[in-house]
Amino acid sequence: MRDDIKINDRAAAIGHKLIEKLETVYDPEIELDIYNLGLIYAIDLDEDGHCRFLMTFTDTNCGCEDTMPAEIVEKLCQIDEIASVSVEITWSPVWKITRISRYGRIALGISPR
């Protein structure tokens, strides 16, 4: 799991499953998945299987603001340990290009450093 995502122990225990699902949710304008794009700020999984997901978007006028949270809920609910998901959107801190992973930078043709 990325170091810049706040994650509790329960969610960290299924981190590989979370990453696998999140890498299939793409920002349609940038054509990179939300995990490598750095849109995820926090993942918290409670003992009842409820996953609280905190994220942002690259811009306040993102066209996927209505559809992406529903796609995240759909994908994460496919994980056995997750019973329900709530997606919260925040604009603070503001997303910056420095949040893109090394893989994401290479995929977008940006210097990986």
Task: Describe the model.
With 113 residues, the protein is α/β, with parallel strands linked by helices. It has one domain: GMP Synthetase, Chain A, domain 3. Helices cover 28% and strands 21% of the residues. It has a four-stranded mixed sheet. Strand 4 and strand 5 form a beta hairpin. The longest helix has 9 residues, at 68-76. The two termini are 19 Å apart. The mean pLDDT is 94.
In short:
The chain is of the alpha/beta class and 113 residues long. It has helices at residues 9-12, 15-22, 34-37, 68-76, 102-108; strands at 6-7, 26-27, 32-33, 40-45, 50-55, 84-89.
Question: Secondary structure elements and their pairing?
Answer:
Blueprint lengths: L5 E2 L1 H4 L2 H8 L3 E2 L4 E2 H4 L2 E6 L4 E6 L12 H9 L7 E6 L12 H7 L5
Parallel strand pairs: 1-4, 5-6
Antiparallel strand pairs: 2-3, 4-5
The CATH homologous superfamily corresponds to Fe-S cluster assembly (FSCA)
- Strand pairing plus helix content: what structural class? alpha/beta
CATH topology: GMP Synthetase, Chain A, domain 3
Catalogue the unreliable spans: none
At the first level of CATH, the class is: Alpha Beta
Shape: globular
Roughly how many Å apart are the termini?
A: 19 Å
Computed CA radius of gyration, to the nearest angstrom: 13 Å
* Biggest β-sheet strands, sense, barrel: 4 strands, mixed
Trace the largest sheet across and list its strands.
1-4-5-6
How many separate structural domains?
A: 1
Helix proportion? 25-40%
User: Residue-averaged pLDDT, rounded?
Assistant: 94
CATH hierarchy: architecture:
2-Layer Sandwich
